[in-house]
Amino acid sequence: MKIALIGAGPRNLSILGRLLFTINKAAKVEIDLFDPSPIGGRVWDPFLTNNHTFLMNTFANQVTLFDDYELYDNDSPIDRPNLLDWAHTRAFDYLKEHPEYPKAYENEVISLISSNTFASRGLFGIYAAWYFDELLAAKPENITIRFHQTEIINMTKGPRRFKLWTRNNYIEKYDRVILAPGHIDNQLNEKQESLRKFADKMGFVYYPASHPAENDFETITGSDTVLIEGLGLSFFDVLLSLTAGKGGSFITNRNGSLTYRPSGREPVIVAGSFNGLPPRSKGINQKEASQLYVPRFFTLKHLKSIAAMNHGKIPFSQFMSLLKQEMTYKFIYNQVMQSDLPFDSTKANILHALDNPLSWSSLNDRFNLDLETEIDWDGKIFPAMNWQDTETFNKELLTHIENDIQSAQLGNNWSPLTGAYDLLRDMRDIVRTLYNENYFTEDGYEKMLTQFRQFDNQLSAGPPLVRMRQLLALLKAGIITIAGPGFKTGHNEHFFEASDKFGQHFQGTVLIEARLSTIDFRIAKSPLIRSLARQGLIEPNDRFKKENGQLLFGNTIKIDPNTFTVLNKKDQAVDGFYISGIPLEGERWFNTVIPRPYVNTLIFQESQRLVDSLLARSPQLHRILKKKD
């Protein structure tokens, strides 16, 4: 049997590991991986110029590629270190054995000293390459693995097999195909095409939405004014490239704050977004690799009991109410634990009372405390929308960022605010279960993709704390201006332009869209995706429709969610063709996840289900391919 894995990122590497230790030794199997980027995939390419400085957004001890369970059964046991452990034990020797990697990674390995450390994206790419080498060394003799660093540009389905074409003219047939391409760039829309043509006409520079590490900012100089659209994670990457990447430096002060020392080569920078503020920063890590918060109120049992009383569905309002109740509990709990009380028994009594949400409003009177027991979580998402003018915005912006930094410094477990935000990450699998198993109504799903996505992204998906400290230093140094909410970009006759809701107007010679492409296979640039769509091998998901008739999940490729088998335009299973990961975002909840060790993470669950389906496809082969107990 021949299997093609299209994409060599974390998804397909996880699937590869599952295949190697599931297939019976009596079966001869060939597995080919295809990716135009190195092993690890596009985002984690260690050879991209900026990827040794751009950080992952997950602590190094919470990153792994090793499956939680099946790999234990391998006849040739292999080490299973997470990224941080690998950096401490195996990484330096591996880098010495592979001089093709930039020397900067050797210095980084030495600096990764604690669980509070973020590794660079490039180092994770090297970890992925090492993991792949470990799989090659441990694979059974009956399995052949080849990696082709090239792009698949076309695929057709024959009566029994699939035919694949690569960009470098390699053509081969396969029995099974798994597509896990990660983020795919889109074709330019009408506005973006207008901006591109304007940039070409004026000799300016325009960067549409894409991976920031792939942008070359060398041509941007101190005489340019750069407009940046977006204040999310990509914004921080762009900002670092235009400041420290231009020779500036951050000086650490005695109190831990940063001061920026310019090089003189930085451009004038103006940035903004719809809501006017960056997401909340990650708190200092106080959690072990597999340590997850155990909820008291927002539990699957409680949520499913609510569904049982509502015809199998959870009203979105009750879902949010219970989630905010859990966050408020943690918010008050952490205040109690940090309070200076005369007797431990008093603290125990308070915590006992805290178990009942009805008692929260009377805690201060009952125990003579001064706790904050009520909090407007919705007000924490877009507070700048309520600031009335530019002067107020500029003043409140600095206060907001300073407060966020102070909260994050208290830690992701013990800070009242940041600790509560971090619950959203720890409870994400509960949300995934409800979302993926159809526990919401059509209206509920639409609100999950709008209201809850904004809530989750703004409070729990922010940058490492050091990036927020750097932003504050750059603001105080006058290197960057952040515009008010309602930030819009375009161009006039002479320049790129931007405006905000306060009536401010800005002009620039460079425009950067600091975000990844929208996840929507219907407008993808990929020749493979476009070919599959033309053939009707992939179709938009029509499971739910909005009130206006539009498909709610139309951006995602339609699959059988139990097996990840693709469904074609006739709603028939494309037997042997599977899709995993980012192209399913919307159909599945929050697919942009890196595996975390020993918490039964999403990627490992889905890899197990997909491989079981792949091996069970043909009953006569199943007995041979599937390992005996």
TrEMBL record:
Domain of life of the source: Bacteria
Pfam families documented for this protein: NAD_binding_9
Domain FAD-dependent urate hydroxylase HpyO/Asp monooxygenase CreE-like FAD/NAD(P)-binding, residue spans: 4-183
Designated name of the protein: Uncharacterized NAD(P)/FAD-binding protein YdhS (YdhS)
Source organism (scientific name): Fructobacillus fructosus
